[in-house]
Amino acid sequence: MSDAFILRCIGCGASASPAGNCRCPHCGELLEALYPGLRIESPGEWQARWRARRDSDRPEDASGVWRFRELLPILDRAENAVTLREGNTPLYELPRCARMAGLERLWAKHQGMNPSGSFKDTGMTAAISRAKQEGYAWVACASTGNTSASMAAYAARAGLRALVLVPEGKITASKLAQALDYGARTIQLRTDFDGCVRVLAELVGKLPLYLVNSVNPFRLEGQKTAAFEIAESCGWQAPDHVIVPGGNLANASALGNGFRELRQLGLIARQPRLSIVQAAGANPLVRSWREHGGERLEPVAAETAASAIRIGNPASWKKAVAVLRETGGACLDVSEEEIASAKAAIGAEGIGCEPASAAALAGAIRLAGAGFIGCDERVVLVLTGHMLKDPEYVMARAAHPPVVEAAPEAVLREMERA
Asked: How many structural domains compose the chain?
């Protein structure tokens, strides 16, 4: 039931009604969804129910988000969910990467295996479902690529119009092609991502546009279900450590909230540490953490080849700081070279990811080397996007395939060189 939740401001604590700009009408801070009446009498029965739904043909059951709908009561009816059967993504073991990091075992939750190729889908199904329920005709986002691809797909599925604002020349062709293919009205602006956010905020204040960027509290409610899946895959025993790439910082916030809810409801015994890794060229949270103890954040001019986390003024930084403090996690940045090396290591496992995802492994290697992660701890990396989101990154760094004569001998010579 949609009346089972309340929206509360993370700043002044006031209750709020759903609003187009997704901010508190009193102080302008972000909102969060809470479920004050939610109780679980038999955790085992709920866990069995969620698992059984994976065998159902109903779209809302087959979704890795909506099969946990008891912990996501934001719609009037579950059948109203706009879904592409997102979620239920694999948890891969990474034995070679574990050895690189000096860990006994290491896993990757690959959110790039969602329908549009990124973790955004688990949040977008919730945001678009709410937009449709509230009667909006248009949805809108500013994006570095993944959000726009996801929003365009779910808007098309819902029969809604979609407006996408992207920074000119700072989005990969693969991501741009997705938004265009799904029919979104896509406009490039002569600015960076943060400039796109500013323009969109003005438009939302003037037009009946439903904002689906990560400031949308319902989007984070969808994204928190990845924490449920991780816990489920681990036999409802939370891992010791979860490591997340940090861009706009909503995903770290959502995962932290998800694990907290599981603990509060008695579904897991404890929360994992959650650490956030940023690129050195786009590290506003790291600077805030080091220089100001997370009390204030100063925007930076972001520059990194990991385009999905090329964000200099993250909207959800206060929520991310709260998760870091609550779980005792670390906040660090890694170089472009470390990201490239980590991406190659993940690829050598037969698992591709976009560059931003590889920041999580680079951070794990650094944290394990510093002793912050014990060698016997159970560590899960969150891979946020598919490798085909940014094939140009690989082609710019990999050795180009040689061209030889069409003869067995020529091929054998190349095999010997290898």
From this structure: 1
Please report the pLDDT score of residue 169 as a whole number.
Answer: 86
Q: How far is it between the farthest Cα atoms of the chain?
A: 75
Q: Which domain holds residue 344?
A: 91-115+219-397
For residues 279-317, one letter each, b for 16 or more C-beta atoms within 10 angstroms of the residue's C-beta and e for the rest, the string is bbbbbbbbbbbeeeebeebeebebebbbbbbbbbbbbbb
Residue 150 falls inside a structural domain: no
* Cβ-contact 222, 124 below 8 angstroms: yes
Task: Output the six-digit token pair for 260.
Answer: 């907290």
2 band by pLDDT with thresholds 50, 70 and 90: very low
Rg of the chain over all Cα atoms, to the nearest angstrom: 21
Least confident range from 76-80, 84-88, 364-368: namely 76-80
Q: Long-range CB contacts (< 8 A, 24+ apart) of 24-27?
A: none
Least confident of 18-32, 113-127, 195-209, 369-383: 18-32
